[in-house]
Specification:
Blueprint lengths: L6 E4 L2 E3 L30 E8 L5 E9 L15 E2 L2 E2 L15 E9 L1
Antiparallel strand pairs: 1-2, 3-4, 4-7, 5-6
Length: 113
Amino acid sequence: AFSGSPILGQPGRWYDPNAFVLPAIGTYGNLGRGVFTGPKLSNVDISLFKSLQVTERVGLQFRAEAFNLLNHANFASPNALVFSGTTVSPSAGLITATVTSSRQVQLGLKLIF
């Protein structure tokens, strides 16, 4: 008797566990495998290079690289365990981790001879 979307889309509760009914003892239920998708992943990496010729045989290269430039939080998959015994698990649909790191910037200088 559940109506509406079971996907709530919040890290504290990605899906609504009230949309599920505990299957009968000895059965697996009827929800297909892999029917839920987790949060989307978006990531922007950028790198800039500048090469300079110091002398005829010696060059210098400056590098600037940024990973996860927009500093977007990419959440991991939610906890898939819906029931704990005969009751709804308090951690059902909870997301506790991220799959990418926060923004990282690195600079480098390379001497080429």
